[in-house]
UniProtKB/TrEMBL annotation:
It catalyses: 2 a phenolic donor + H2O2 = 2 a phenolic radical donor + 2 H2O. Its EC number is 1.11.1.7. Pfam families: peroxidase (PF00141). One of its GO terms (molecular function) is heme binding. This is peroxidase. InterPro entries: Haem_peroxidase (IPR002016), Haem_peroxidase_sf (IPR010255), Peroxidase_pln (IPR000823). Binds 1 heme b (iron(II)-protoporphyrin IX) group per subunit. Binds 2 calcium ions per subunit. Belongs to the peroxidase family. PANTHER family: PEROXIDASE 55 (PTHR31517:SF51), PTHR31517. It comes from Castanea mollissima (Chinese chestnut). The keyword Ribosomal protein does not apply. Disulfide bonds join 15-47. The lineage of its organism: Eukaryota, Viridiplantae, Streptophyta, Embryophyta, Tracheophyta. Removal of H(2)O(2), oxidation of toxic reductants, biosynthesis and degradation of lignin, suberization, auxin catabolism, response to environmental stresses such as wounding, pathogen attack and oxidative stress. These functions might be dependent on each isozyme/isoform in each plant tissue. Keywords: Calcium, Disulfide bond, Glycoprotein, Heme, Iron, Metal-binding, Oxidoreductase, Peroxidase.
Amino acid sequence: MVTLSGAHSIGRSHCSSFSNRLYNFGETNPQDPSIDPIFARDLKTKCPQNANNGNDPTVPLDVLTPYRLDNKYYKNLKNHHGLLTSDQSLLSSTSTAEIVRNNARHGQAWAYKFGAAMIKMGYIDVLTGSQGEIRKNCRFVN
């Protein structure tokens, strides 16, 4: 799963998917302490606190190389620049943190593992014909 999470090297996220980390994290910490404060300050300029009032901006999942599938996602995590809680939490366990560090150091090895994992995942419960569906919008069933 850590290897497949590297897919977050490309794409964008709506501010509403992570704004709780910036503004309403908890009673003792209004901002998630696992996020770099300078990174959070930058995100707040792009994602105002009341962004859900009909306007939900998007930001890149990977600020270093947003249009390239590479291992920079893992370097972002090491620098506490994980956008989503699920991404940054990969550093909270010693076993997953070691994988993150290895993937950050060895981009070519990560790329090979990622390709193999994608192929393997492609064989999981493949639905064909009328059983399957290609969604026009990922958020909604057609």
